[in-house]
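Loading example: each entry is read as two labelled lines plus one structure line.
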Amino acid sequence: EAGVVQSPRYKIIEKKQPVAFWCNPISGHNTLYWYRQNLGQGPELLIRYENEEAVDDSQLPKDRFSAERLKGVDSTLKIQPAELGDSAVYLCASSLRSGMIYEQYFGPGTRLTVT
Amino acid sequence: QQQVKQSPQSLIVQKGGISIINCAYENTAFDYFPWYQQFPGKGPALLIAIRPDVSEKKEGRFTISFNKSAKQFSLHIMDSQPGDSATYFCAATYPSGTYKYIFGTGTRLKVLA
């Protein structure tokens, strides 16, 4: 079974430029998460999707960040314009309910560097 | 109340030794506590998890000890191996409909050969 796929793996951009990240979750997983992981920190949730619906986007900086999950499968996270503080690893995860628990499976992440 | 405090920040252990990583939480609504292992350049991978209705869970060389009254839980890695060198994150969540994971800050483990 293929894991969570993310691209690109690395991205270097200048501040004020736009950037987009793509995620393909594990087949059959209807819940998809985007996290941001700063250096030396644990992941922090940005947005969670149940199928096509964004059910928790309370931590998403909506002035510059946007996300979509068309057809309830792949997802794209966009930043426009990027700021220096956006440099981080952006992780995508997906989950399938196991009893009462949603066990989350992470992709390898996209390392963003904003210069 | 949303924080999960993890310690130590880094840990060096000799091969064959026991690695112990501790986490503490405040929110008593949390009822699922996973540990994740992350290698450089990789995403976190689920290692082991526990519900608060048990005090200990063991899977191979990895054991979670859970102290509900103290609101603490720990990961023990027995017979630590150089291949265990990675960053370990504890997390907590609760099935209130958010399924939001609150992660600790991570522990960088190095096992010396």
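Chain A touches chain B through 23 residues (CB under 8 Å).
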